[in-house]
Amino acid sequence: MTKKRIEIIRRKRNSMAKFLRNDVTDLLRNNLDSNTYSRLVNNLGTVVILVICMEHVEQLYTNRNLSSCYDFVDQSCLLVLTHLSPMSKRRECPDKCKEAISTLMFAAARFADLPELRELRTIFVEQYGNSIEPYVNPEFVNNLKADPLTKAIKLRMMQEIATQYGIMWNSKSLETKLYTSPVVQVYV
C-alpha cells in the first residue's frame, strides 16, 4: 500500500517539478537577464517576474528534496520487507536495518500522506524501543529542513535549467545586479 501511495506522490511531484521547470524556462527564454535589468529597476512588474522565477526555483529545490525523502522511504520499506524474517526472530534490530527503521520512525511524524508509517512506528517502538533513534539518515533530516535558499543556489539552479533546455543565459551579470541593487534585494 505504501509503495502505491509513494508512486502517486512521486507522479504528482514530478508533474509539479515539470510545470515549475517549464515556467522558469519560459522566464529565462524571455530574457530574464542583464539585458532586462534596466527595465527591472524601472518596472516593478519585471521585479515581480524575477520574484516568481526565484520562488519557482525554490519550490523546485524543496520538491527535489522531498522527492528524495519519499524515495528513501520507499527504499527503506523494501529493505525492511526483505529482512522481515530475521527481524521477527530477534529482539535486536539488525545492523543493516537500523538506519532504515529509524528513518521510517522519524518520517512517520512528518509524512501525513503515508499513514502506514505511523503503524510501522508503533510496531518498531514496541519491538526496539527508542534505542535506534540516533540512526536516522542525516541526509533525510537535512532534506526536510526548510532553510531558505541563498541567491547563489537559486542562480545556480536557474543556470542548470537554462543549460538543460539549451538556453544561452549568462547568470553572472544578473548575479552581480542581484547582490548590489537595493530595489531587487528587497524582493528577492
UniProtKB/TrEMBL annotation:
Cleaved signal peptide residues: none
InterPro entries listed in its UniProt record: Ist1, IST1-like
Superkingdom of this protein's organism: Eukaryota
Residue runs in coiled coils: none
GO biological process, one term: protein transport
Similarity annotation: Belongs to the IST1 family.
Record's protein name: Uncharacterized protein
Source organism (scientific name): Artemisia annua (Sweet wormwood)
Lineage: Eukaryota, Viridiplantae, Streptophyta, Embryophyta, Tracheophyta
